[in-house]
Amino acid sequence: MTVIGVTGVGSIGSRHARIFGDVQGVTVVVHDAVATPDELRDRLWRDVQVAPSLDAMLDHHLDGLVIASPDATHAHAALLGCARGVAVLLEKPMADTVAAARDIVSAASSSGTPVLVGYVLRHMRCMQRVAALLRDGAIGNPLSFQVMLGAYETLQVARTRFDGAAYGALFRDYSHEWDYLRWLLAPVSGVYALARTAGALELRQDPNLVDAVLRLEDGTTGTAHLDYVQAPGTRRFTVVGDAGTVEVDVARGEIRVRCIGQPDRVETAPENRNDAFRAQAEHFLAVASRALPPAVDLHDGLAALHVSEAVRSSALEDRWTDVGQD
Fold it and tell me: How confident is the model over 64-74, as pLDDT tens digits?
């Protein structure tokens, strides 16, 4: 029997707990600093083992620890997991500060603990298909890109509604975008961002809109728009190459390839919202058993956090900002 612990049982933590709980041969133990055991059972639609503390949960001889608690608690939980030698699935962002993220990297390296960072878009079939198209040269050499992300529904479903979030939570909440740029194209090396809070919306973040120009290490340039305004949400990604263009609508699982002198080619890779999380869970179980290395490692997580911090600094200081390196 494999035992998986989940700490932090909000919207994402609940999803992890339910998905691991549906895997044959897996027992789930949960811990939440706020919710009562009855609330957790109602939230998860099943009778689950509830631990009164993180230490008590680790005493269940976990094979894997999923950390989906608030960002500021990630480092503490990850360090405890590393000290026990328990494989960790660490939700994004990996920490609330670069210094805390470095502490996790150091602890995992010293203990030999595998840590998978929760950039679940890498497990989506449509994104994997885009990766294959780019790798195979379907559009030639990538020259430019456009990122579009709208996610007001995130504020609507979040249990805390981000009431206490500091300036720039949007840049870290959706660091998925910084990660898949690194994965599909190249690491982000610099950014200029304009951000503001606007709109007659019940739920607001500061800021709730950002538009950024980004440069990648290989010279590729592009733009990114992120907002907590659009509902229903959207997530699209376009790469322009010297032989064509590839566009992906992530929510629809639709990929369009446009090449010079050829008719458009449309591919579909439909999946429901849980499919990528199931694929991530299967991968994490292999990581926990030491059968595979993490597909998204701590260096990927730290790189995404550096981009988030650069976007935040650029928006606050109204200047071009180079992305930190480790």
Answer: 999 999 999 99
